[in-house]
Amino acid sequence: MKLFLLLVGMVFILEGLPYVAFPEAMRGWLAKLSQTPAGQLRVVGLVVMVVGFLLCWVVQRTDLFVE
């Protein structure tokens, strides 16, 4: 549970960073994002989820990242 909460905290940090560092750019990007078709957003979301899943799977199942 501790690891999960640490990961959620890291996600919050990474999600909030662009809004703190580049608020005007984010406003423009969000305006463009709101005009993107729903189907395209779903495809991008699915691709990102699959990449995240594969990254977690590789890290868990291999010794590639052991120091």
From TrEMBL:
Record-annotated membrane-spanning stretches: 39-59
Alphabetical keyword list: Membrane, Transmembrane, Transmembrane helix
InterPro entries: DUF2065 (IPR019201)
The organism's place on the tree of life at top rank: Bacteria
PANTHER family according to UniProt: INNER MEMBRANE PROTEIN, INNER MEMBRANE PROTEIN-RELATED
Name under which the protein is recorded: DUF2065 domain-containing protein
